[in-house]
Design brief:
This protein has helices at 5-15, 26-32, 43-49, 57-66, 84-103, 106-109, 115-120, 122-128, 135-141, 150-160, 191-209, 214-221, 225-235, 292-295, 333-353, 363-366, and strands at residues 36-37, 69-73, 79-83, 133-134, 163-165, 179-182, 239-242, 250-253, 268-269, 305-308, 311-319, 322-327, 373-377. It is of the alpha+beta class. The protein has 2 domains: 18-182, no CATH class; 268-377, no CATH class.
């Protein structure tokens, strides 16, 4: 029997720890969900608050400080938080994509430098970043020889060089300006390491977001069809094809389970850029197509979302000492009660850390939403 659209959504929510919060160490939780998107420093914290029972932000602070999890540019050429042991294979998988996105971009080409020139800077960069440095310091000290091109050289290097973002304190461990330090990963990856990395990343992806198509995995990573097809072949019977309603083949881990259609999905307040909204081909598993233009803005910002019964129904933001919840359609009393209870708990966490979280994105609300229900919740 073919898996239904609801079963696919429930499978992802279950694997993303969003059907039930789990008692997990924060580093293990990050590994279970593959990766957490992290352009906004608050987002990994709020993502884990939605997923981990009795989540304590201090535990995530410590995991960053101890290097048990790391923040770096990886999938989709975007900042992600991953388990420290997964960083090296995930970077090996993504390295050719990361390099191509920068070294063959017109902004780097305008410097007159070649990819080989950029590679010769990597040992010097690694030495300079043995202790944390800001991007400005790197430009001044490491790429000063390139004068007016220093900024573009560092723009390229920070994307594909083996560097992490270094925690600097503050409510969410990372503050501006961004600070960087070198990692233990090798600057280059052999073809064998790259292939093994793609296989590792594909297994992690299916464990966290499956069942899925090759198009889904390509969207999550920006890897090529050739690399994905090769990984599927080399993984053999670790990955199996499962029946689905669409025309594209669905793949999953051989021992994975999928929840029944009638499994309930609790309300959640997802952070900006939550991975559940970015892990599958558009519009995704939990996003009604008509709401996508409201949630995903033209510049790529993905607003903090309300989930009811496993589907996006609106957005939320910090406002008036609490949280403002905006629904795109009429919700019942039970749905509002569940969302309100979640919002009250999140307000308490934010009050101790950053009551105005995501304040810089408030302009999207100024543009207005369609005929909606709206309420303010305080902890």
């Amino acid at each position: 029997m073919s898996l239904t659209a609801r079963q696919l959504a429930l499978a992802m929510l279950d694997r993303q720890l969003l059907l039930e919060r789990r008692h997990l160490d924060v580093a293990e939780a990050v590994r279970r969900v593959c990766a957490l998107q992290a352009q906004a420093p608050a987002s990994p914290y709020l993502a884990l608050w939605n997923r981990v029972q009795d989540f304590a932000p201090e535990d995530l602070d410590a995991a960053f400080a101890q290097g048990r999890i790391v923040k770096a540019t990886l999938m989709r050429i975007t900042l992600h938080v991953v388990h420290a042991e997964d960083y090296e294979p995930y970077r090996a998988a993504m390295l050719s994509t990361l390099r191509a996105s920068r070294l063959y971009d017109r902004r780097f080409a305008a410097t007159g430098l070649s990819p080989t020139d950029a590679d010769t800077l990597l040992p010097e960069l690694a030495g300079f970043l043995e202790r944390p440095r800001t991007g400005t310091q790197v430009e001044d000290e490491v790429t000063a020889r390139h004068g007016e091109h220093a900024h573009r050289v560092w723009w390229a290097l920070r994307t594909f060089a083996p560097v992490h973002h270094a925690p600097t304190g503050g409510p969410w461990s990372f503050t501006r300006p961004n600070t960087y330090r070198t990692s233990t990963a090798a600057p280059a990856a052999t073809p064998q390491e790259a292939d093994a990395g793609v296989q590792c990343l594909l297994l992690g992806y299916l464990r966290a977001f499956g069942p899925a198509t090759t198009q889904d995995f390509a969207r999550f990573t920006l890897l090529t069809r050739t690399a994905i097809t090769k990984a599927l072949h080399e993984l053999g019977d670790q990955v199996v094809q499962v029946p689905g309603l669409g025309r594209a083949a669905l793949f999953d881990l051989a021992d994975a389970a999928v929840p029944a259609d009638d499994t309930p999905a609790p309300p959640r307040l997802l952070p900006m850029w939550d991975s559940t909204l970015l892990a599958h081909a558009v519009p995704g598993r939990v996003m009604p197509p008509e709401y996508r233009p409201l949630v995903v803005r033209r510049n790529g910002d993905v607003l903090p979302c309300l989930l009811v019964d496993g589907q996006v129904v609106g957005v939320w933001r910090a406002a008036d000492g609490g949280l403002e919840l905006t629904a795109f359609r009429r919700l019942g009393k039970v749905a509002w009660q569940g969302l309100t209870e979640e919002a009250e708990k999140l307000s308490v966490l934010l009050a101790d850390r950053d009551p105005a979280v995501y304040r810089r994105y408030g302009h999207w609300w100024d543009k207005g939403f369609p005929d909606v229900e709206r309420t303010i919740v305080k902890g």
